[in-house]
Amino acid sequence: MRYVVGYTADERGHDAVCLAVALARRQGADLDLVLVTPERSPYAGTYLPDRGFESLLTDQLQEWMDQGLALVPEDVPARGVIVRAESNAEGLIQAAEDSEASLIVIGASSRGLTNRFNIGNVARSLLHASPVPVALAPKSYRRTDPITRLTCAVGNRAGADDVVAVAVSSAQRRGLPLRLVSLVALDAGHSDPEGMEDEANRRLAEAASALAAGGRVSVETAHGPSIEKAIEALAWDEGEVLLVGSSRLAQHLRIFLGSTANKILRTLTIPMIVVPRTYATPGTTGPGAQTHEADA
């Protein structure tokens, strides 16, 4: 198991490394700290065919990479990878494909002043193009102890059962307790919200019973006047991670952050992992190994 970490020599990069360490310690994964540098050519206006400049740039990149690797504890295997690409997102996706990584981990944009999450250009590009799940670290995330619980937020749209299967298989692989949170009661435009809530809870309970063992799955319903207020009212563990599916607008094996997930990010204080549409969970059998169409 290998994770790609989008490393930058700033607070955002530090956040990403810390989250990657926390995830890797639970999964026993290796880390690739990937530093993307702009791809240059003789046709680019910034191209400088000067070997002295190239040497200085190489030294600076290596210094930044050494600083990043120094953030990784000795018990987590890690290596540094410097990639040349037209964009950070392109470089990270290429690194993930080259190493067959199962996850890309990045930090939230450093421009956010009040919110823990502020989706910048790199994250936005990844969330439209990544073929593997993307983990988003909130601003100032510094926890490196292993993840303690996985929560899956489920709405009423197509793909809800599939993202539950992904969550169950992920929790089982990591030996984590799983919390299934129903957002059905908050879905607008339904004539019988109470009936839909009962039906959703029944389905989640059946999924928990059928797909998990050991009593490590719980089911809750999020209540509130809005998605933001409901997420804010839920109790969150310090070591928790939230899993959501991609919007139905996403293309095959790509991520598209839907309106519900965007609303969740406005108040969320823990990391969030977004799973691509029709993503097949690697290394599992049963429901979690099927291709999935997740919608959040």
Architecture overview:
The protein has 296 residues and is α/β, with parallel strands linked by helices. It contains eight helices and twelve strands. The strands form two sheets. Strands 3-2-1-4-5-10-9-6-7-8 form a ten-stranded mixed sheet, sandwiched between helices. It has a two-stranded antiparallel sheet with strand order 11-12. Strand 1, helix 1 (11-27) and strand 2 (30-38) form a beta-alpha-beta unit. Helix 3 (88-99) crosses helix 4 (121-129) and helix 5 (160-174) runs parallel beside helix 6. The two termini are 26 Å apart. Mean pLDDT is 79; it is low at 41-45, 249-253 and 283-296.
Specify the number of helices: 8
| Cα separation of the termini | 26 Å
Poorly predicted ranges: 41-45, 249-253, 283-296
Topology as H/E string?
EHEHEHEHEEHEHEHEHEEE
Question: Roughly what fraction of the amino acids lie in strands?
Answer: 15-25%
- Radius of gyration, CA atoms, in whole angstroms: 20 Å
**Number of beta-strand segments:** 12
What's the overall average pLDDT, rounded? 79
What overall geometry do the principal axes of the alpha carbons give?
elongated
Side-by-side strand order of the widest sheet: 3-2-1-4-5-10-9-6-7-8
Largest sheet: 10 strands, mixed
The helicity comes to 25-40%
User: What is the SS-derived class?
Assistant: alpha/beta
